[in-house]
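Chain X:
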Amino acid sequence: MIIVVLFTAATGVFADTTNIESHRAEAITKGDPLPRAKMHNRFKQYDTSLYNAISDQWTKILDGLQPATPQDNGEVILAFKLYSNGKISGLRVEDTTVDAKLVSYCAQAVSNSVPFAEWPKTMCDVFTNGFRELHFTFYYK
């Protein structure tokens, strides 16, 4: 089973070539095709850490699953608010083309990763309302 994750945030698109592999799953980030989106993300270090935490949790969950079947193809879009203290609220499904069980694996990966690190001062200076709206798109292929 190949899992592709797209992570977007209020600052633009997080895109990286990081590959997280296990014996059962490979998580690959994909993002905005414009290279400038990669270069201008001032919070790449924080976002990479957040992405890695969710990906690590997702890989652990998927490692315990039976081999993928053809009906495992599809996507899940999750959204949530990330606060400056690293906590989240409002985890919700924005859209999905897979069954509830596969959606639950994605939601569990996010929930198991909380709390994330507190924001650096530069993020607090930019997001003066104290939160960021994040979207993760998980592709099952």
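Chain Y:
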Amino acid sequence: MTRSRPGSPTRGRVRCGRSPTPGCTAGGGAAATPAPWSTVHRAGTRSNVLLPEEIAAILAVLLVAAVAVALTLFSDEKTLASEDQAPASGEQPAARPTTSPTPAPLPSTTPPPSPTAAPTVVVDARCPDPAATGVTKQGATAYCSRLQYTDRYLWSLRQGDIAHPILTAPPALSPGPTPGDAESPVRICMEQTGQGRLRCAAEILRANRSMP
């Protein structure tokens, strides 16, 4: 082995030869110097520190998990509520009473009764009802009126008692017809209608025969 001289540039170094020398390898090379312990300790503690990006990713995963759990719980509660409201198996829901609408009354198809048409009458012919009215062939209104001094009622163109054309006072009570019974209606017909004697007599006779 060669030793360095004092003051030479190789001072402090170990030159490795063939013989075993401390600090040298079997091949003659210098052995690697181990790193200090403090440096190794700092490099090992670097992996225990979380970066901001890693913290954000962990929080996002936790948030998604919490939302999934909340949705699952809400779905379960909704399912239970629908099962509580549903009728039991084999039971039929109670039928609601139905009320049929009241049909509207149908309009009446029966026409209202028409007023009774006044009968066609002949002036000074007999009339059955003192309160009745009639119409002549000429369209004039006739009234069933009482002949003065008698209990006879004749058709007249004037309301009220008919003035007797023959009697001027009440006749005396006697059995049989009153004087002028046949003549009075003819004269009244001639006076109220202006017709002749024969025509008035014929029309009065025909009308009286048709009465019941």
